[in-house]
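### Sample
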Amino acid sequence: METAICGRIALSPNHVFNPKPGDKNSVCRGPCVSRGILMAISTTGSGKGGGLLEKPVIERTNPGRESEFDLRKSKKMAPPYRVILHNDNYNKREYVVQVLMKVIPGMTLDNAVNIMQEAHYNGMSVVIICTQADAEEHCMQLRGNGLLSSIEPASGGC
């Protein structure tokens, strides 16, 4: 395979043939005026195909520091825990809903009411599934507001 770049012919990766304008092997007929413009012409020779591709170099930007992908992966791999709200005979339903909305991030009024109702009728309800550290924090906050709660390992992902 030959590659010509405005008169220069690369016979191999290490050898470049540079004919003069007007030579019979020159790609440019007459004077090569536009040497700033690269022209690539490839022809198929009698060889068996293309050259060798170099192995790509994979660089770590900061050795020892996890990438954002690694951090997301490790969070997904953390075993999930359930925060469970238990029914009690002391707290009013409205108060339970208010505490759930205050303690659990992103808790809506509808979800808080449904969780409270399920705990009231079934004795307990799953409040949220999250990492162990977050589950422990939510459980302590619920208890700090007078609600009965516990955590347990959950099967499946977060």
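Residues 109-122 form the longest helix (14 residues). This sample (Adaptor protein ClpS core domain-containing protein) is used throughout the tutorial notebook.
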